[in-house]
Amino acid sequence: MGALLQIQDLTVAFETDEGRLCAADRVSFDIEEGEVLGLVGESGCGKTVTALSILRLIPSPPGRIESGSILFRGRDLLALPASELRRVRGQAISMVFQDPMTALSPLHRVGDQLVETLQLHQKIGRRAARSLAVEWLKKVGIPAAAERMDAWPHQLSGGMRQRVMLAMALMLEPALIIADEPTTALDVTIQAQIFNLLLDMKDRSTSVLLITHDMGAVWAMCSRVVVMYASRVVEAGPAEALFRAPLHPYTQGLLRSMPSVQAPGGRLEAIPGQVPSPLNYPTGCHFSDRCPKVFGRCRVAEPPLYTRGEGRGAACFLLDEAGIGP
Amino acid sequence: MTGNAPLLEIRDLRTWFPVRRGLLNRLVGHVKAVDGVSLHVMGGETLGLVGESGCGKTTLGRSIAGLERPRSGQILFQGTDMKVLSRAERKRAARHLQMIFQDPAASLNPRLTVLDALTEGLQEHGLLEGSREAEGARLLAEVGLPPEALYRYPFEFSGGQRQRISLARAISLRPALVVCDEPVSSLDVSVQAQVINLLMDLREKHRLSYLFISHDLSVVRHLSDRIAVMYLGRIVEEGPAETVMGSPLHPYTQALLAAVLAPGQPRGRKLVLPGEPPSPLNPPSGCPFHARCPKAMDQCRLDYPPASATETRRVHCHLYPPRVPDPAPLLAP
User: Fold this and answer.
1) Number of helices and strands in chain A (H, E)
2) What is the predicted ipTM?
């Protein structure tokens, strides 16, 4: 299967009072047809900015996509005229946000919002749109779907609202769904319901870009993983291989620092220090000030992505077989 | 503190919130956030309290810390019923019982420097020995922060550092029990592990007991000696951490564990519970879990299941024969 979406050297920066803040620094990765790709990292690592750039939703000013390209089925979304971009949004690529309350209009009934979305993108009568919307509310597991059409967003629980958002994103049957922390605000039993819905979509050959800070969610859901740290991609590869033997010291630290439901509690192997501010990244490798395996070269030069077999790669000088080691 | 008497004992506690509606502000019902909970925490022990949002775990923690007024039941701390104490006595007892919250930004006064926040309690209780600066610096050292932090304000710190500061403040009064309400839930993974380690270090050094409230089963498992599972205002299962997580008895605990996403757990589709927790304003009859329970029987719709208990474990589910009833509440509700 080929790549549905190719992000190449995407750089996004924000103008702030304290200077230029680079939120995504030459980010590159592909999303294949019909796969669930996990984009994982801690808050501020640039994963949401990357996702928003795909649909050109970065507020500008202060934000600016400085360079790079985002090819969707071979066409550069960053070069598309506004009218064509509108057709891509929602219809070909749709997005589910962490907080459905900010994505749904509080002033319109749930049903009206669904019907409006359908009519905006498809030639469909109001009555037909309404019955299609009810059908999708049922598919995402909303009980008494027909009655819920008349509900206001605030009358629904967080889980219900997220399901309405999912119905809205899914009913146009897009080729790609970008889900930005779709379950972070939800309870674990509701999270499991939402994730099963996303897996259903994958089975219908929709691709999913799952953005999350939760390595457990990535493990459960994704076939491939891209790890970001401090605005850069530090590692990418198939999930099984990456979890079995992570290449980058950051990925290794992230996995080791997780408490487990099975193991009895000893001290956790925490990563020392904290994520640096984007205004104050260390020179060289951005992880160099926290890395247990740091050596001279890491503090002066930026490591490129060294590739390994099975489509794996990591941006770490430890993988540079030709170069000067520690 | 060791011995056989529990440090904290809760008997048949109920904390309800009145719901008023309409023009006349009429009482239309109660949100039964905590509805008949009995639990205990031994000296030096960590009790994990897990459950989903709205199950009442935070209200239970706040009731124990004296931040909510229970409707009925008893809270015995170090053997004393907090309710019968005079104001002054309660203040003295309360310093042994501290609470930290999920959002340290909201629990630290933004206008107080770290020095003020850390020594305020000590001065209030007349426990300050030596200078405020020396005591503040000592407390900061305990939580791994440099003494320069004393003269800064909460907003100048990251989430993890702020949680360290609120921990320093909590231990400043040398408490026996710290109620921790989702203390690491808003932290990034790499920082979360640091704060978990700090919680473990402080527990060992000061022989602290924790009531550790969280929705995250992995974190609770990591820190707890015993675990209680709460659903819609009630404890549905309780026991040693190993056995509750290793061989859960209640169908709700089983479902919670099946939904855990973690490396090493099965990948892909999860067995899911249908629906959502019912409203605590209008709890269903019988077992509150019956509408979502894959194993529900007719009896579950009618009667609240009595405890089926052994020496160390307790479950409220009709699948298990009733054994050793709950200790009778000392005060009628």
Assistant:
1) 11, 12
2) 0.81
